[in-house]
From TrEMBL:
PANTHER family: TR-TYPE G DOMAIN-CONTAINING PROTEIN (PTHR43381:SF5), TRANSLATION INITIATION FACTOR IF-2-RELATED (PTHR43381). HAMAP family: IF_2_B. One of its GO terms (molecular function) is GTP binding. Residues 425-573 are annotated as: G-domain. This is Translation initiation factor IF-2. Residues 70-270, 299-328 are annotated as: Disordered. Keywords: Cytoplasm, GTP-binding, Initiation factor, Nucleotide-binding, Protein biosynthesis. It comes from Slackia isoflavoniconvertens. The gene is infB. The lineage of its organism: Bacteria, Bacillati, Actinomycetota, Coriobacteriia, Eggerthellales. One of the essential components for the initiation of protein synthesis. Protects formylmethionyl-tRNA from spontaneous hydrolysis and promotes its binding to the 30S ribosomal subunits. Also involved in the hydrolysis of GTP during the formation of the 70S ribosomal complex. The keyword Protein biosynthesis applies. Residues 422-591 form the Tr-type G domain. Residues 111-123, 237-246 have a biased composition (Low complexity). PROSITE patterns: G_TR_2, IF2.
Length: 921
């Protein structure tokens, strides 16, 4: 059975497609509409889940006759069942009665038996309360058990008595034997055999440990006799025994391996002394024997358990191997279960239909057929997207793992704890416009230079290094959150600490809040530099209070953020700030392995006329040296020279060092990863593959989170929906926040990562791209730059005019039912450069089309300061007094907006069309 569409399945079930769709969504299976394709596995799942419901439905749908027949059949079956049950119960009753009779009979017999017990029995019987027949049967059974228990106890005691008697007899026999042996000692040695034979029969291995001192003595004697006899029977070790032969010697040796042969010295013959010696011997023998037994037991156990142990060790080895693979998988960002499962087939990203079929060992025709059923007509030589590879494999019940080309070179950074060495912190300065970021960086650099090497004028390489009390701090030179977020958007996490500059005379401003949000999104700690404290209007405490409202709480007030008052202009508090940064870094315990091939990120790059491509990189791991083969983004090459921030040639750059690289093949982009390879060919191959992938990616840029995609993302495990909210007034933001809080967030948590009053800017788009967020705008418009950036980054910008629409959309998106069938498509944008008053017609906007093309039939919105102030239709579109159908970008025209006279110079007229969009998967 192949995959099916929802409506096909609904038809099969005799259900309404919509009803089935909602049931499917309840089952958390991705399906958006009646046309959605369901995989075979999902169809099976749905069938199973709906089986009871469908069964009931089927029963309900049967005609009356069939229903009556079924009912009759059921009644007959029930009756038959009841009959059987009655018969079974009767049989049980009969059995019970018979048992009671039998018990009564036995009781009667035992009561009659024995005169002595008769009285007792009758006494017992009189004691027992008169009970009905069944009860008396039970109590007699209990009595029988009691009697049997007593008899067993008696037998046990008797056996114990017998054993004790036998033991005593054995002891006596032993004593006798010892006495005899002692008496015979010295006169004539007893024959070996009889001595051994005389060993008392019940002298088991366990007995000596428990036996008394006397019995031990007798054992010693017996053992000694046995040994003497054995010695006499086998050749002496020095080989002069006439009877000696090699075989015997060997056999004795072997026996010695398992046998306990205590070294018992001869005893002197006089009285108490002799007994003392015997006592010592007894103790020694006891100990040695126990030891020997223990050893034998261990040897036996290890022989028996050898197999088990080997198995265990093998299991342990395999578990360790699995753990290692899982660890490696996690470090490479791969699902460990896919790497551990032997049934998983690894398929190279971008495989053709033919290659895919070969890897799975199936005919290409089969794959093509399945693709066709999914609405994808591909030929054998066409490449399959990741999604199709997974879909078709799933359809075939096969497991695959898509291997990206870069994975071949994926370096697993798994440094051992002992290889990690402390490294300096990397700091970015952020803050509102004009709060003194540049001045502060200058002041800091000046401090560094003053206390550092003489003559070291900092070069602009994108980062600078400052020394404070022998400790290094690396500052990223580009202040502001744009650069920071742009880097982060590219996956480059280079900053350890953010210095947030807030002017003491100005307080918290919109960009201050933006910076806080960026820092929080990146999970980077903030050190606050309250700047301009030299100014008369400075209120550093007010800054603290304002920041508290945004979750930045001073340490002295019980929070976790360090604050320092500074004046960048008068260079006050700079050392204090640097020391605070060091303190914050110490808290972070920053470490890296310097003894490895270097890797890190490009923080700035340009093409220098004289020197060719130049890139400033920040080393994050390992040590970079001239001569290293390096890849930086899509560029590669051999490091010709390293230049430090002071403009000097460097011999090496270690973790947290910024350094300029010369010798690359092309100019990389800020935020690109760089990595050193042992072999230059590998570096080149990776760079080329990256370039190829970038081209591919350009064609199919991975979209960021979008409302259309939210349901699928939730299905894939997304649990958070990040939002950037921009609105015309603060009240709208608060209202939206309130509404979200009331929403069911059990499946996906809604987080507003940034909100502000104003139009949607490029920075909003970069933040959204970096945090995989959706931008929501209320009565605001994106700037042209923001729109372009969003298009490029595939960031979803949703613009609303009423709050409930946004709430409805997000609610619908969560369950995959987002259905705005109509969307506004922008057509063009015009800048109002003049306003003409035309009698009888009204005000006409003299415009310049800055983007796209505006047509006479388009709807328009009038935008002022990024806010929509009017929406309506075009009443007239003219070029030089002529009515025209449309005007393209770069041309001037006159636009009359129907019903709106308040047009002003500087307004923007945006043309758009409302189009019906067919929702696809
Ligand atoms: N009085 C006083 N003025 C300062 C201080 N720090 C900076 N300024 C002044 O504030 C103005 C802005 O300083 P910048 O360093 O350019 O501020 P910025 O944050 O880098 O500004 P942008 O680059 O435009 O974002 C300049 O005129 C500085 O001279 C200070 O500590 N005290």
């Amino acid at each position: 059975m192949a995959s099916m569409r929802v409506h096909e399945l609904a038809k099969e079930f005799g259900m309404d497609s919509k009803v089935l769709l909602s049931r499917i969504q309840d089952l958390k299976i991705a399906a958006k509409s009646h046309a959605s394709v369901l995989s075979e596995a999902n169809v099976e799942k749905i069938r199973e889940a709906l089986a009871p419901e469908l069964g009931a439905k089927a029963a309900a749908g049967m005609d009356a006759e069939a229903a009556a027949k079924a009912q009759a059949e059921k009644a007959a079956a029930d009756e038959k069942k009841a009959e059987e049950e009655r018969a079974r119960r009767a049989a049980v009753e009969r059995e019970r009665e018979l048992r009671a009779e039998e018990r009564a009979r036995r009781e009667h017999n035992s009561a009659a038996k024995g005169e002595a017990s008769a009285a007792a029995a009758s006494a017992k019987q009189t004691k027992r309360p008169p009970a009905p027949a069944v009860n008396s049967g039970l109590s007699s059974l209990a009595r029988q058990i009691e009697e049997q228990k007593a008899a067993a106890e008696h037998r046990r005691k008797k056996a114990a008595q017998d054993a004790r008697a036998a033991k005593l007899a054995a002891e006596v026999a032993k004593k006798k034997a010892v006495a005899e042996a002692l008496a015979n000692r010295g006169a004539k040695k007893p024959a070996a055999k009889p001595a051994v034979e005389r060993r008392p029969k019940p002298a088991p291995t366990a007995a000596p440990r428990k036996s008394s001192f006397d019995s031990l003595l007798s054992q010693i004697e017996a053992e000694k006799n046995r040994l003497t006899a054995e010695k006499a029977a086998r050749p002496s070790r020095n080989g002069n025994a006439a009877a000696g032969n090699k075989k015997n010697a060997k056999g004795a040796g072997k026996r010695g391996g398992h046998h306990f042969e205590p070294d018992v010295p001869e005893l002197s013959n006089n009285g108490e002394d002799r007994y003392a010696q015997m006592a010592v011997q007894a103790e020694k023998m006891q100990r040695d024997k126990v030891l020997a037994e223990a050893r034998a037991a261990v040897a036996a156990a290890s022989n028996n358990e050898g197999e088990g142990r080997r198995k265990k060790r093998k299991e342990k080895r395999e578990a360790a191997q699995r753990e290692r693979i899982a660890q490696e998988a996690m470090e490479r960002g791969i699902d460990p279960s896919l790497m551990l499962d032997e049934n998983v087939v690894e398929v190279m990203q971008g495989s053709t239909v033919g290659e895919f079929a070969d890897l799975l060992g199936v005919p290409s025709g089969d794959v093509i057929k399945r693709l066709f059923l999914l609405g994808q007509a591909l030929t054998v030589t066409q490449t399959m997207s990741d999604e199709l590879i997974e879909l078709i494999a799933d359809d075939m019940g096969r497991k695959v793992r898509i291997v990206s080309p870069e994975e071949e070179f994926a370096v697993v950074y798994n440094d051992k704890e002992e290889d990690l060495k402390p490294r300096p912190p990397v700091v970015t300065v952020m803050g509102h416009v004009d709060h003194g970021k540049t001045s502060l960086l200058d002041a800091i650099r000046h401090t560094g230079v003053a206390s550092g090497e003489a003559g070291g004028i900092t070069q602009h390489i994108g980062a600078s290094v400052v020394d404070i009390n022998g400790r290094q701090i690396t500052f990223i030179d580009t202040p502001g959150h744009e650069a920071f977020t742009a880097m982060r958007a590219r996956g480059a996490q280079v900053t350890d600490v953010i210095v947030l500059v807030v002017a003491a005379d100005d307080g918290v401003m919109p960009q201050t809040i933006e910076a806080i949000n960026h820092a929080k999104a990146a999970n980077v700690p903030i050190v606050v530099a309250v700047n301009k404290i030299d100014k008369p209007g400075a209120q550093p405490d007010r800054v603290r209070q304002e920041l508290v409202e945004h979750g930045v709480i001073p340490e002295e007030w019980g929070g976790s953020n360090m604050f320092v008052n500074v004046s960048a202009k008068q260079k006050l508090g700079i050392d204090d700030l640097l020391e605070t940064i060091i303190l914050q870094a110490d808290v972070l315990e920053l470490k890296a392995n310097p003894d490895a091939l270097a890797s890190g990120f490009v923080i700035e790059a340009n093409l220098d006329k004289g020197r060719g491509p130049v890139a400033t990189v920040l080393v994050q791991r390992g040590t970079l040296k001239p001569g290293d083969s390096v890849v930086a983004g899509e560029s590669y090459g051999r490091v010709r020279a390293l230049i430090d921030p002071r403009g000097n040639h460097a011999k090496q750059a270690t973790p947290s060092d910024p350094v300029e690289i010369l010798g690359l093949s092309s100019v990389p982009t800020a935020g690109d990863e760089f990595r050193v390879f042992e072999d230059e060919r590998d570096a080149r191959k990776l760079a080329e593959e990256r370039a190829m992938r970038a081209r591919l990616k350009e064609q199919q840029t991975k979209s960021h989170m979008s409302l259309d995609d939210l349901f699928n993302r939730i299905e894939e495990g997304t649990t958070e929906l990040n939002l950037v909210v921009k609105a015309d007034v603060q009240g709208s933001i608060e209202a939206l926040r309130d509404a979200f809080e009331k929403m069911d967030q059990s499946e996906v948590k809604i987080q507003i990562i940034h909100s502000a009053v104003g139009g949607v800017t490029e920075t909003d788009v970069t933040l959204a791209a970096a945090s995989d967020a959706i931008i929501i705008g209320f009565n605001v418009r994106p700037t042209a730059g923001a729109r372009k950036a969003a298009e490029h980054e595939k960031v979803d910008i949703r613009l609303y005019r009423v709050i409930y629409q946004a709430i409805e959309d997000i609610n619908a998106a969560r369950i995959g039912m987002l259905a705005p069938e109509f969307v506004d498509k922008d057509t063009g944008s015009a800048e109002v450069r003049d306003v003409f008053r035309v009698p009888k017609v009204g005000n006409i906007a003299g415009c310049y089309i800055t983007e796209g093309e505006i047509s006479r039939d388009d709807k328009v919105r009038v935008v002022r300061d990024s806010k929509v102030i009017y929406e309506g239709k075009i009443s007239s579109l003219r070029r030089f007094k002529d009515d025209v159908k449309s005007v393209k970008q770069g041309y001037e025209c006159g636009i009359g907006v129907d019903g709106y006279q308040d047009i002003k110079v500087g307004d923007v007229i945006e043309g758009y069309r409302t189009e019906e969009v067919e929702r696809t998967e």
